[in-house]
Structure prediction request, 91 residues.
Amino acid sequence: MAVMSGELIDVLINVACWWLAVFIGYGVLLLGVDGLLQRFARRRARQQRERDALARLAAERTAAINRIGVAFLAAQQLIRDEANARKGARR
Prediction:
């Protein structure tokens, strides 16, 4: 009977070690997947911030181009008004 209990203890220890190895492997797998998901989420957030920054720059560029266009049209009108005033003064 003592021999059977020794073998039984060996089997139980062996099974316990295997379960421990499986749980450790599962924990490592979960931590690895969590790390990958966090890295993916950080990369997506960074890409979204970059897209937002590019959209903001595009809007600023469009506004600047529109301001330049308005200034150009105003300058053209002033030049025309001044030219018409000079023509009217000569007559």
About this structure: The chain has a mean pLDDT of 93. The helical segments are 2-90.
